[in-house]
Amino acid sequence: MDLISIGYGVVALLGLAMGSFAGATVWRIRARQLLQDKAAKEKHDPAELKRLRPLTKANLISDRSQCLHCHHTLSWYDLLPVVSWLSTNGKCRYCHKPIGRFEPLIEVGTALAFVAFYWHWVTTFGFGTGILWVLFGLWLVALVMLAILFAYDAKWFLLPDRVMVPLIAVSIVLFFFHVNLSSLGEATITGPLLSGLGGILILGGLYLLLWFISKGQWVGFGDVKLGLALGLLLADWRLAFLALFLANLIGVLFVIPGLVSKKLSRRSQVPFGPFLIAGFGVSLVWGYALLGWYDQLSLWLYSVTLMV
Ligand SMILES: [Zn+2]
């Protein structure tokens, strides 16, 4: 076995562990959000706050996880991603209340995202050395934050700043490295820089415009910040455009069956963050392949029209 193949296993296990961390963090942020809403006298569910309140004492990053029902501190063998869940049939080992499907889903989802990204990385750069691995690590940090935002927005229609602000910070660092790397083969840095800025304008600027025109009715300001972060991460106007297109496509594919089966009505609130993140993911990993096919197709159509 070569290093790249071993890497897949390592990255998958790391993804499961980080997905487990992301799942626990989602609940801790939720608990803090509820406390904040209460302090600001905003609408909140007192029963939910009562249930999650013990989590507000836990450190956001370093504390051991606990059961959301009985608040028993979980042991290492309760924290084995997916395995623990399967071994207790999805129930808490201590109070036997169901844990829900959220935890295994975010663990498996994060692991799949890690593996897909690793595939993209090693096919682009090979196994690489030094600084490339630092960048790869930063990317994984960004992916974990995106997993938290995805889950949080899907559950509560909100993209919390506690995750968004560090994500934008990491995205800015990655943006400048990306522009620098892309300019290596070119005469000047101007082309890659303009392309990157174009991507930010497409993903962040469009949402800013929609937010401004509708006074926050069509899109939330969280979507504007998410668009900015994703534009920075893609650092390429064509990939940004593709991500936006895919996000809308995935959104429509998701909403139509819901409307047909009457699970959703025209007035239902649908968070856009998860679609945007999904579109971004596909564009990040398969974007250049998709754009390549599109170029070939248009070239082919062009030659057909010439023949006619
Ligand atoms: Zn329990």
Please supply descriptive tags for the structure shown above:
308 residues; mainly alpha; 2 domains; 10 helices; 71% helix; binds zinc ion
Describe the structure.
The chain has 308 residues and is mostly helical. The chain folds into two domains: 1-129, no CATH class; 159-308, no CATH class. The chain has helices at residues 3-39, 46-52, 83-87, 102-125, 131-156, 161-182, 190-213, 221-234, 237-260, 273-307. The longest helix has 37 residues, at 3-39. It is globular, with a radius of gyration of 21 Å. The termini are far apart. The model has no long low-confidence stretch (mean pLDDT 90). Residues 67, 69-70, 72, 92, 94-95, 97 line the site of zinc ion (ZN).
Fold topology:
Layout: H1 3-39, H2 46-52, H3 83-87, H4 102-125, H5 131-156, H6 161-182, H7 190-213, H8 221-234, H9 237-260, H10 273-307
Helix pairs in contact: 1-4, 1-5, 4-5, 4-10, 5-6, 6-8, 7-8, 7-9, 8-10, 9-10
The protein binds zinc ion (ZN).
Global morphology = globular
Order of helices and strands: HHHHHHHHHH
Count the strands?
A: 0
Give the terminus-to-terminus CA distance: 53 Å
Q: How is the main sheet built?
A: none
Which class do the helix and strand fractions yield? Answer: mainly alpha
How many helices? The count is: 10
- Give the oligomer, counting copies of the same chain as homo and different chains as hetero: single chain
How helical, in percent, are the residues?
Answer: over 70%
Low-confidence stretches: none
Average pLDDT works out at 90
Number of domains: 2
Relative strand content: under 5%
Distinct small molecules bound, one entry per kind = zinc ion
* Radius of gyration based on Cα positions: 21 Å
